[in-house]
Amino acid sequence: MLTVETIHKIRLAYHRHKKSIRQISRDFNMSKNTVKKILRSEATEQTYTRKEQPRPKLAPFQERLTQCLIEDSAKPSRDQRTVLILYEQLQREGFVGGYDSVRRFASQWQVKEKGAQAKAYIPLTFDPGEAFQFDWSHEHVELGGMPVIVKVAHFRLCYSRKMFCYAYTRESLEMVLDAHVRAIEHFGGICRKGIYDNLKAVVTKILMGKDRVFNRRFQNLASHYLFEPIACTPASGWEKGQVENQVDFIRQRFFVPRPKFANLAELNEWLTDQCENLAARHRHPEFKDRTIAEAFAEEREQLVAVSTLFDGYKEAPARVSSTSLVSFDRNRYSVHASAVGRTVTVRAYADRLIFVRDAQVVGVHPRHFGRDKTIYDPWHYLEVLKYKPGALRNGAPFKEWDLPGPINDVRLALTGRPGGDRQFVGILSVVSTYGIDAVTAACAEALAAKVASCDVILNLLSRNGDEPQAEECSVSSNLPLLAILPVADCCRYDSLLKGGAHVA
Hints:
Elements: H1 4-15, H2 21-28, H3 32-41, H4 62-73, H5 83-92, H6 99-114, E1 131-143, E2 146-157, E3 163-168, H7 173-187, E4 193-196, E5 203-206, E6 212-214, H8 216-225, E7 228-231, H9 241-254, E8 260-261, H10 264-281, H11 292-300, E9 314-319, E10 325-328, E11 331-334, E12 343-348, E13 352-357, E14 360-366, E15 374-375, H12 382-387, H13 391-394, H14 405-414, H15 420-429, H16 431-434, H17 436-448, H18 454-464, H19 491-497
Parallel strand pairs: 1-4, 1-8, 4-7, 11-15
Antiparallel strand pairs: 1-2, 2-3, 5-6, 9-12, 10-11, 12-13, 13-14
Helix pairs in contact: 2-3, 4-6, 5-6, 14-15, 14-17, 15-18, 17-18
């Protein structure tokens, strides 16, 4: 192959010095055909492209490597082996070549089989407080010694790159609302726009272009915090590329190897601390002289101020069964017996459930995420116990009733007595009047005197504490004012007897 210098000399000899091809061939000791080829092509450099790359060391392992690549292509990207892992696997099987040959072969296979090619993107820039991005990721952790897949909500402020992460067991609407409330409280404000992909929990319908029909409760959240939700074009993750990159970064930094925690609350506390530490240590990718925390301090002044927190729950109607139970999310929860046969509204939060009927709360329970569980609150059945005291012995809500020690001892003392169940129900019925602490103290005093009975305990309660005072009635301003105020004077009765006959 001729060098650039030789080609340069041949072209000068022919075009500038007007030498013949025969003379140039003689001077440079090369064939006339070669000289003609150089002059006719007008090329100033000769290159050689190898049509086939020989791989003497990799050749015996190409079939095995191809098989591994085909197997991985059918798996999700998070479960695919990296080229480095494939290289180490081939080494264990006897491969003595270099990593670079394996990398080039895998890259060429990707291009050939999947048509992989580099994509061009347009860099995006944002002003302080202009936008934030939101996304979910699935991460593997250990909670209480058991492997669990948690769903992590990711927030990213586009200007300062400040991040916030919070883990849940699901991606439902109430989790999205709760994550926003916690993130906005953490940041101390909210940006003017929120960028999302088309989450099923948030986007009800995809219309033409950027038009979307958002979930009503999510619209309430956006209206409360005064930000505009913007949904990305389907299959265009680059429109929220910052949070997409954050998902991979957080996974490699926080969840490899698999972390272990006692419960979800401990995991979320750890996640919050790690995000703060990253913001304090890492330099801003654009402003190299500042950390992310310093850039966030500047952006925080531009965030929309938050006055009150949004009540982030999802509503659903439900019917109360004859056993005062409501079915929700594959579990059953008790409510007050007054709601039996009625329809209640279930307000589902990320961590609790509130049951409402006619604007009155008839039940509150911690939320359970298992299946086919029945969660009782025995106090919901107190009104039923008043006319069915026998249910106290075998009623399912009362089997594992965690009562204070003295009250439970009174229950055991009354068990087996004639009318003992009815007496104990009478004791429980005054808890709403005197409070659980006062009833517990009265039960302890009765046990000390060895006279555990309903009448004794009620007597102790009336002696130890006054009856709760009724609330004072508010006097209407429309009532007429008394000209003469009444005076308590018993002598007025004597005036009624003057001149009249009376019995001595």
